[in-house]
Fold VWFA domain-containing protein.
Amino acid sequence: MGVNVFAVPVFFICFRECLETVVIVSVLLAFLKQTIGPDRDQVVYKKLVRQVWLGVGLGLALCVVIGAGLIGAFYGFGRNHFAGTDDIWSGAFGLLATIIISIVGAALLRVGKLQDKWRVKLAQALEKNDTKASGSATTRLKLWTQRYAMFLLPFVTVLREGLEAVVFIGGVGLSLPATAFPLAVICGLAAGAAVGYLIYRGGNTAKLQIFLIISTCFLYLVAAGLFSKAVWSLENNAWSKIVGGDASEVGSGPGSYDIRQSVWHVNCCNPQLNGGGGWGIFNALFGWQNSATYGSVISYNLYWLAVILVFSSMRFKEAKGHWPLMKAKVQETSESVSASRGLVSGPVEETKVEKKADRDEAPTVSRLRRGTMFWPYPALASIASLFGTPNGHEHLGGPSAMDDVPSNDGKSDEHGIVSIAAHGDIILQVEHETKQASHVVRFRVSSPALKQHSRYFERLLQAGRFGEATRVEEQHKELRQRYQNMTEVPDVELPVIVVQDLGRISTVKSIAGLVTDFLYILHGKDMQTFPPVANLANLAVVTDRFDALEVVKSYVDRKKIIRALDGKTTPKVDNALSEEKVRQRLLVAIMLDYSPWMEKYSARLVIKGWTGREVDVSEALWWDLPQRVEDEIAFRRDCLLETVQSLQSYFLQLYTSRDRQCRLGYDSSPQCDSFQLGEMVRFFIKMGMLHMRGAVFDASDEPAIPYAGDINTLHKLSRKGTKKSTSPQSSMAHPQNNSAPATRRPVSQNNPFRSSHDAPPAYSPASNAAPTLLPPNISVTPATTQGADDPYAFLNTFDTVFLIDDSGSMAGSRWRETALALETITPICTAHDSDGIDIYFLNHGDRDFHHNVTSSGTVREIFETIRPGGGTPTGQRLNQIIKPYLRKCEREGEACKPMNIICITDGEPSDDVESPLIAAAKKLDKYDAPAWQLGVQFFQVGRDEEAKRHLRQLDDELAEIAGDDDLRDIVDTVPFMGQEGTQLTGDGILKVVLGAVNRRLDRKKSKELHR
């Protein structure tokens, strides 16, 4: 009874053909939604979707009519004209279906690559003039097929699949009663439509290219089965002629198949017998038979081999530019190509002019260059242009297909605008200022895409919240009245949104590529090129600036960019990475939440240390890691160093206690403990892990600076014992001996006297009264310079700034000498600066009470709170003082008060001092400032001859170093003590406070300054 109502073979055939159809239709709908979409151009999107459904409906209606007519004719005339040739029809249609599905499958894989091209072509086709315009019938037909391509493709697909279903149903179902067809057909179509809906939903949510790959694989699986089944049908037709009928319709056992050609056979599941049970599903969908012949097995494998070869050849041609085993074609010149197309016969310049004229006359679609398609069969032109040719290039009839779409190279058009989205509705103007230059780049973008993925743009463009959103909405209303959709609007008429500052990125020649990559990701496109680590770090900074980390993180994860970077980095290269490259990777890990890099490279900084530098907001963000990671790394390194230090502290405290540690029986003695203590002290000193310091009076100039090297080296040293393979000078060298400044965090560790800000120990009590810095045998000699009553009156003109070297090399006698120097000159300077002097230190931070100091006693109190320790970044500190002052001079002009900087130092800088001084002198020359606008006096303490020569070089040879003989002289130098410990005279003190701004005092000889 069931067979008379529901024909299982008919159901499966309808289901399979419907499934093939819905795969292609789902791809079209998903393509339209992801390419044009209702949120981009709703009018065009709805028009194209209506074309798709109209083509599907008309094709389905024709198939039903043809199928019903065939069945009605069979049962009306009572004769099966199909019975003798059903295998031939099935085989022929199977081969035809295999060819069509294979071509369609190859075309589907190109949808993702040519998505932008087709978007523009669809827009062009829809805005063409009426097809009744003048022109040949071929031209009018071509224009019509282009305009209604989304109707023709589903119509042809549904019609072909429907006719194929009619043929296959005629082969297996005409032996059944007519009542078995309707329900089976309806259920098959319904099941296929349901599966198609699920495929469509998945295609909308998944990435288009992934969806296309899955769909193509399914279609090829069906095509391979159809090809094998077609060969089997042709072989079965020959066997049926031998036995005088269709043997497969009588059963599944012996005699129902050709035993001569059989590879294997299963005595069940014959699809000819009402579906063959559960196996009928595989037969209907994938063409798998219960009987295999040599021809069907070989053809199945040959099909897959052919697919592999074809796709390998296509991939080869895409990469190399020519087919395998063929020579590459020589590129034609512009003239020969133009001549072959019949464009012009003149020179190349005329060709360019004519092409430009053609573009100006063409309809406007985002000001993109147009291309013209020439196909021998206009009716198929639109369909083929949508899917592209198999080799990935246009035919020779017209320009390259890429002329129709913006290329992903970040290049701007004639208006200086980079097109990110052809349907974009705003122009995004990005401005970024660096030390070297100011960058301005403009992009055509889609505001819905920006708002969807960036919280920054979501708030900026929220209606009624900011003026930009209101202005954009008003301009959009005006544009909608003049244009049908945003694709038609020229770039120059779109509203402009200006955003400033991309964040703390590194110095780049152009920001166009960086911002283009960022905007491509926001618009669902791929980046222009595979980014190196530095670019990825800059991209992370820009992404954080515009609050779009989620979408960029998802893109980087999906593309496996970080894993690819790891794969390209060999262990040898990874171990040799510079600190900057390590920090770049760490910043990427922080921003994009990539834990393997976070764990690996933060541990490397903790173990190996880093180059200390002051935080500069103009530098890239990776030099000052966000989210308190910088402080956390410094803290963890401190904990490790403290753990290593606790090892020696434990044993030293143990053996300096009164408890005897030796456990040698009768040989135990205090001398044993003393011997062990001495050996430990010698071991730790030899390894550079311990320094002996006096507690009563520390006369050493060597500061106690935390170990700044590789902790692994420290661990190896502690294991080597007294071996001399690694000396303390090379492996345990202090930062003081390096050209780079010391580690900047934490600052308290640079103090040679203590590790915290607690009071000094009891054996060096502080006096209740403020100490007298000048000893009794030193006095200040009055000035002998003839002239005004007050020789220091010129000081009233200046803002006096003291820069005091508090580095580790200043500890001990030099620090006491600095105190004497301050006691000598600060009373004079505070008395002649109405708003007070300013005091800066090289390592200790600025405090409010360090500025506008009007009393020498306050200077003494400030000095007593400081303990020397750290590096000597003199050039960096001078730059931090001079640079803001020069900006002030540029703003105020002649009203800017001159500045007199007195730098008290031992003359041993660890960085470049010349560059900021030369830059300042050139800036002052540029501003045409007075000769005394800025002066820098180096007041040297200590008697280091090498340091003295360096300071004299700054004083006398700065113009020669700069290569500019006309460079103004803004530097002077004076030693605090003479060659034999002689004191400053009055003229010497006058030179200290005014020598840098008074050329007459600058020329005084050193022997005149001391007695």
